[in-house]
Design a protein that fits this description.
This protein is an alpha+beta fold. About 25% of the residues lie in helices and about 25% in strands. It is built from 8 helices and 18 strands. The protein binds succinic acid.
């Protein structure tokens, strides 16, 4: 009698899938063409994807006509998944998926319509920020709706040696609440946070320059959305330094602008990049599903 193979073993030993990885003509990013993430991915194919993610920082898996369960299963290959604090916008039955959408049904928002309104790296406000996020297009607008990605390794490398020496030892506070009320004033559909939600997102202190745990490359790690202050600096000096770093970190030569195609699944590395939603006209409908993979404590 032969012992039954576990589902994990059958996945690891699955037949290869033919697929191409094509770098974009941009500072970061590559598209993955021909892979079906809902089919078993063997260890060798997975290693190619993992390597490409480290090299290009954002991978666009084209034409993924897959279910939320497939999206979650593929995301889990990279690590445990975060459950977003805004449980109001979890996909029903799938708390691992945050709905990012400007659509309202019966006057109520079905998702987080202004996710990505400011440059940020996901979950930097927690002790363990995210490794990466996977955003899957469900419904795309006829105009607008692009997502921008800025390479924070390039941003670090482009700083003068004097500025690098100045900021290398510094640490900064990141807070989920930093812009929450400002966003709620603009978008009153944003839910008022309960005390339990506020407690879940207590501020975290992170290095201003982090080292990627897998590649060893340094990256700037401050963002307009979540970074509130440099620890130990007077407010005026901290504000001025952060303003300078925010402006520097998103210079056009570090940025790839993603124009979404139907069924794109975009997987970015939050340890290497910041991202921004460019915005969607109110007259257009946009809906995407996001999973977020947990990362390590930055150093
Ligand atoms: C996000 O910041 O996770 C959403 C980005 C987008 O909607 O383009």
């Amino acid at each position: 009698m032969t012992a039954a193979l576990s589902p994990e073993a059958t996945t690891r030993d699955a037949p290869p899938q033919p697929f191409d990885i094509r770098p974009f003509d941009a500072p970061v990013g590559a598209e993955v063409v021909g892979l079906d993430i809902s089919k078993p991915i063997n260890d060798a194919d997975f290693a190619r994807i993992h390597r490409a993610h480290l090299d290009h920082h954002v991978l666009v898996f084209r034409d993924q006509q897959v279910s939320p369960a497939d999206h979650i299963a593929f995301s889990r290959r990279f690590g445990p998944l975060e459950i977003h604090v805004l449980h109001q916008f979890h996909l029903e039955g799938y708390p691992e998926i945050l709905i990012v959408s400007n659509i309202k049904e019966n006057g109520e928002p079905i998702g987080l319509g202004d996710a990505g309104a400011y440059w940020h790296s996901d979950i930097s406000y927690k002790e363990k920020p995210s490794l990466g996020s996977l955003l899957h297009a469900q419904e795309l607008p006829g105009e607008g709706g692009d997502t921008l990605f800025a390479d924070q390794h390039l941003a670090w490398e482009a700083l003068s040696p004097e500025m690098q020496a100045r900021i290398l030892p510094l640490r900064a506070e990141h807070s989920y609440l930093a812009k929450y009320e400002e966003l709620r004033a603009k978008n009153p559909w944003r839910p008022k946070l309960s005390q339990a939600q506020i407690d879940e997102v207590a501020p975290a202190v992170q290095p201003v320059v982090r080292t990627h745990p897998e590649t060893g490359r340094k990256a700037l790690f401050v963002s307009e959305h979540f970074t509130t202050r440099i620890v130990g600096l007077p407010k005026e000096e901290s504000d001025a330094l952060l303003a300078e770093l925010f402006a520097h970190s998103v210079r056009p030569e570090f940025v790839y602008r993603h124009h979404w195609a139907p069924h794109d699944l975009v997987f970015w590395d939050n340890r290497s990049l910041m991202h921004l939603a460019a915005g969607t006209p109110d007259s257009e409908r946009r809906k995407l599903y996001r999973t977020t993979v947990e990362g390590d404590v930055p150093f």
